[in-house]
């Protein structure tokens, strides 16, 4: 069942520049405090959905051109929501729950921790302070960051798809590719991400096979309120 669902997701999402990676809810819950647990049995099948660099041209721009009068919030969020809702329709006999990376619980906690989900699914390695043996940061707050073995930091984690009726007790957990394997590189990565994230150098911590286009870089470097103009949308149409 898991393979059939994964193949359907791959055929539906791949042409849009999106990836779906399977995991069991239990893998995710096992590494987090109870307050962050997903409220499903541990063998429940789930997928973490990533956007790759090609999503901008394959999904976002066509979506904006077709739906420009209906765009009332962040175009990327609305584009991903639109396409995942259509994917959900491909499983009429299954309940499919969708959680987006921007959604919050009433407690103001995120509905899910995106980087943890990507790590346990084997999609991208979540580098954290604990991955550095000789910690040079003292009392500074250091945030972790996921690196994809193919795209480096040129990707984003967008959503979870959960299939509550599908239990996969024998699903084998893949290990994420440890592509930033030296102590020096991990320190460099966390330094760049925490203190120089605006220049985006952390995204190229490894040699990448694909990165954002110049147009896409300009879009994401622009304050959200001004991005509508870049896509030919007037803010009045919001």
From TrEMBL:
<dbReference type="GO" id="GO:0005737">
    <property type="term" value="C:cytoplasm"/>
</dbReference>
<dbReference type="GO" id="GO:0031419">
    <property type="term" value="F:cobalamin binding"/>
</dbReference>
<dbReference type="GO" id="GO:0009235">
    <property type="term" value="P:cobalamin metabolic process"/>
</dbReference>
<keyword id="KW-0963">Cytoplasm</keyword>
<dbReference type="InterPro" id="IPR032037">
    <property type="entry name" value="MMACHC"/>
</dbReference>
<dbReference type="GO" id="GO:0071949">
    <property type="term" value="F:FAD binding"/>
</dbReference>
<dbReference type="Pfam" id="PF16690">
    <property type="entry name" value="MMACHC"/>
</dbReference>
<keyword id="KW-0521">NADP</keyword>
<keyword id="KW-0170">Cobalt</keyword>
<keyword id="KW-0560">Oxidoreductase</keyword>
<keyword id="KW-0285">Flavoprotein</keyword>
<comment type="similarity">
    <text>Belongs to the MMACHC family.</text>
</comment>
<keyword id="KW-0846">Cobalamin</keyword>
<dbReference type="GO" id="GO:0032451">
    <property type="term" value="F:demethylase activity"/>
</dbReference>
<keyword id="KW-0288">FMN</keyword>
<protein>
    <recommendedName>
        <fullName>Cyanocobalamin reductase / alkylcobalamin dealkylase</fullName>
        <ecNumber>1.16.1.6</ecNumber>
        <ecNumber>2.5.1.151</ecNumber>
    </recommendedName>
</protein>
<keyword id="KW-0274">FAD</keyword>
<dbReference type="GO" id="GO:0033787">
    <property type="term" value="F:cyanocobalamin reductase (cyanide-eliminating) (NADP+) activity"/>
</dbReference>
């Amino acid at each position: 069942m898991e393979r059939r669902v994964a193949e359907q997701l791959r055929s539906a999402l791949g042409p849009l520049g999106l990836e779906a990676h399977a995991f069991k809810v239990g893998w995710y819950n096992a590494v987090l405090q109870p307050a962050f647990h997903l409220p499903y049995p541990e063998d429940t099948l789930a997928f973490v959905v990533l956007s790759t660099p090609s999503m901008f041209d394959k999904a976002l721009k066509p979506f904006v051109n077709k739906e420009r009068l209906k765009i009332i919030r962040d175009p990327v969020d609305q584009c991903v929501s639109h396409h995942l809702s259509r994917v959900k329709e491909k499983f009429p006999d299954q309940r499919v729950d969708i959680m987006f990376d921007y959604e919050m619980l009433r407690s103001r906690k995120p509905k899910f921790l995106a980087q943890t989900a990507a790590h346990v699914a084997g999609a991208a390695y979540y580098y954290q302070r604990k991955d550095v043996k000789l910690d040079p940061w003292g009392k500074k707050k250091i945030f972790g960051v996921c690196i994809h073995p193919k795209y480096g930091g040129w990707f984003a984690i967008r959503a979870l798809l959960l299939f509550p009726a599908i239990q996969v007790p024998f699903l084998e957990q893949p290990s994420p590719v440890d592509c930033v394997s030296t102590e020096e590189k991990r320190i460099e990565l966390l330094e760049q991400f925490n203190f120089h994230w605006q220049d985006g150098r952390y995204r190229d911590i490894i040699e990448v096979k694909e990165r954002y286009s110049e147009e896409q870089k300009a879009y994401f470097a622009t304050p959200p309120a001004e991005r509508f103009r870049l896509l030919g949308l007037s803010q009045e149409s919001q």
